[in-house]
Amino acid sequence: MKPTNNHLIEWRNALILLRLPFSIFLLPVYLFALVFSNSYAYEVEAAIGLFLVLHFLIYPASNGYNSYYDKDTEPIGGLETPPLPNRKLLYIVNALDVSALVLTSFFSFTTMLWTLGYIAASRAYSGKLRLKKYPILSTILVTGFQGAGIYFLTQSGLGIPFSFSPSFIIPAFGSTFFLMGAYPLTQIYQHKPDAERGDLTLSRMLGIMGTFKFSAVAFAIGGLVINYGLYTQLGLIPTAVFGVATSLPLGFFIHWWWLCAKNKNEASFKNAMRMNIISSVCLSITYLGLLILYL
């Protein structure tokens, strides 16, 4: 019975390290793409299918792959006490990635290529290439694929052709810059384990106060670009709604910055998760509201 129990524990730990709840923090990126797709005719079934592929296959596989190579013993996104990874995690991750590629190929060849690009970038970030060691390159890679990459993947999956027109490109850039603001905040409590692994993340390079300054600039640029896109394509009301919705995350961000200026121990896992939750919930509700309003 003992080997059986050990196998069950390993499978359970592998499933935990997929961090399914943490994938929901990226829901606003997908909903954001839907908001800017409302002027096109697309099938609701396709939108639901993309949601499932992204949040139950692509994102969890990326989380699991990162955990497999990082072997974290301290808090990581969505898990305060992560279990140690095992070989079964890699089996699950590979199965999820293959499933995602097969399913997105039914949407279109282009959608499958965007999926392949996201998977490749994720594996290059935390795998044997370990681009995580290079702060600037890894930031561009992660925020580019999680922002513009997912935006283009979603548009492609809905049957919307790629275009270099401002109305198509501007929202993608806005999403990328907004994620660029959030990205180093997810690293701010991991400076010690990152240093032990030899990973020079953006937050570790900038320091705690530098991280907040960088995020503030990236949030400002992203907010301006998104507001411009909303105003030019949907009008004043959605722009105002977005401004109101981001006031709560902005308020917490400023409060957290002030706390860290007084005590660097406030750059903690719990505060980082609070920031993620507040931002994700507020933006998701906003984009869902805009989708309903402009259906």
What does this protein look like?
The chain is mostly helical and 295 residues long. The chain is built from 13 helices and no strands. It folds into two domains: 106 residues, no CATH class; 135 residues, Four Helix Bundle (Hemerythrin (Met), subunit A) (Up-down Bundle), CATH 1.20.120. Helix 1 crosses helix 5, helix 3 runs parallel beside helix 13 and helix 11 packs antiparallel against helix 13. The longest helix has 32 residues. The model has no long low-confidence stretch (mean pLDDT 92).
Topology:
Elements: H1 2-16, H2 20-23, H3 27-35, H4 44-70, H5 87-107, H6 109-126, H7 135-157, H8 166-182, H9 191-197, H10 202-233, H11 236-245, H12 247-262, H13 269-293
Helix pairs in contact: 1-5, 3-7, 3-13, 4-5, 4-6, 5-6, 6-7, 7-8, 8-10, 10-11, 11-13, 12-13
Query: End-to-end span in angstroms?
Result: 56 Å
Question: What's the structural domain tally?
Answer: 2
The shape, in one word, is globular
- Gyration radius (Cα, Å) is 19 Å
Number of strands: 0
User: What letter string, H or E per element, gives the SSE order?
Assistant: HHHHHHHHHHHHH
Q: Which second-level CATH architecture of the largest domain applies?
A: Up-down Bundle
Work out the strand percent. Answer: under 5%
Unreliable spans = none
The averaged pLDDT comes out at 92
Q: Which structural class do you get from the secondary structure elements?
A: mainly alpha
Residues in helices, as a percent range: over 70%
Number of helices: 13
* CATH top-level class of the largest domain: Mainly Alpha
CATH topology of the largest domain: Four Helix Bundle (Hemerythrin (Met), subunit A)
Largest sheet: none
